[in-house]
Amino acid sequence: MKKPYLHVTAPKGWMNDPNGFIYYQGWYHLFYQYFPYDTSWGTMHWGHKISKDLVEWEDLGIALYPSKSYDRNGCFSGSAIEVDGRLYLYYTSIVYSQPDPEDIHRNLGHLIASQAMMISEDGFHFNDQTKKQIIPVLDGVIGSSEHTRDPKVWYEDEHYYLVVGSRNEENGIPKGQLLFYQSEDAIEWSFKNNYQDDVLGSPMWECPDLFEVNGQRFLIMSPEHVMKEENQYPSHAMIAPVTFDAKEAKLERVGDFEFLDAGLDVYAPQTTLDEEGKRIIIFWLRMPEASEDGTWKGMMTLPRLVDYRDQHVYTPVHPSIAQRFNQDVDYFSLNEPFLLSADLQEGSEINIGGYQLFVKNHKVCVDRQHVFVEGAELFNEKLCAGTYFETQPFDDPIHVDIYIDHQVIETYINDGHTVLTHVVYHLDNTLSLKDVVEYQLKTIGE
Known about the structure:
Layout: E1 13-24, E2 27-35, E3 45-51, E4 57-64, E5 75-83, E6 86-96, E7 99-100, E8 103-107, E9 111-120, E10 132-135, E11 149-156, E12 159-170, E13 173-183, E14 190-196, E15 205-213, E16 216-223, E17 238-245, E18 250-253, E19 258-259, E20 266-273, E21 279-285, E22 296-297, E23 299-300, E24 304-305, E25 307-309, E26 312-314, H1 319-322, E27 327-328, E28 338-344, E29 349-352, E30 355-360, E31 363-367, E32 376-378, E33 381-383, E34 388-393, E35 398-405, E36 408-413, E37 418-423, E38 431-434, E39 438-443
Parallel strand pairs: 1-22
Antiparallel strand pairs: 1-2, 2-3, 3-4, 5-6, 6-9, 7-8, 9-10, 11-12, 12-13, 13-14, 15-16, 16-17, 17-18, 17-19, 20-21, 21-23, 21-24, 25-26, 27-39, 28-35, 28-39, 29-30, 29-38, 30-31, 31-34, 32-33, 35-36, 36-37
């Protein structure tokens, strides 16, 4: 698989969750879960990229790496916040209870998790002597000593708040939960409250994020094992409207959980505010197989806006991406990124090198069975990923903006009302359209 032009990838090795996503002192900083020695998951580091525009990214190598007794086997996911001009990074510090003697990057036992932080003076230099363990290993009463991770930190009501995904057990059955902490200085933290919800039937909630858009508060997270179908990834990124009482750190859900992306390839999203103060989101895009040359695996989605209107969450592609596609063309090639904008109706079909998108029963449907692989391996575990997908019904005409970036296809329906994001393999260098009302093809101009 050729590296995409616009989708962030690691220089080599394994990439998963976005971490510490922030606009800080004129730069977008995107950290990510990184194992540089292999294309499978191992001892986690934080890779680091920067950008001025969310389009062109520069890789700055490794920012966080295991160096302390409490994080010697990994720096798991977390977030970033600016405090008095400095960049505070928060992460889950990991110890293996039983490292594999034949491969110290693998664990034969269970994880021992605590929460830690590092302070950078400028966002470019990272001194591991500034690391500090801020929430010790839990005793199993508040939350799990093994499954408590992914701190997200924000400032509100003259306090700093931290939410972390966790689990507890009832009658031996694990159940996901959130734990909330509060701080006066973003360094010393005290437990405030927890939140549980049986509606998802998930044993563990990962990567929580809490924010407000257009007057409505939302919780996003990635609960494990919410999809029971055998031919789909079991764990997914979801969103629900909530209320949050900051004084008591009390969360209440006021609407249903929904998938953030109908393509079901994405996971572990994280949000931040862009240069203009708009809420934006980026996801890890799961790859079932490494690149054809065997050097890299995993990437990020295109950055998207998060908008709330007409009682619905929209996630259109960020304008910085859309504006780069400013050159009208009458050809198609996988050697460069393309934007195909089209109005569809019942019976419309688009075939992108074997990736079939069509409208049936007023639903946008995708079949990628001919441009995908059998089985998937993530976190050293065999899984299945889906090949057929469909949305809810839409009225004609249905507008789609399809971003084709080598082996990644992101389809934004009706300005991001619904998004279908997919990794594909072995596309043909062809494009065909049938019964499409109107379309336009663009690529990136100067």
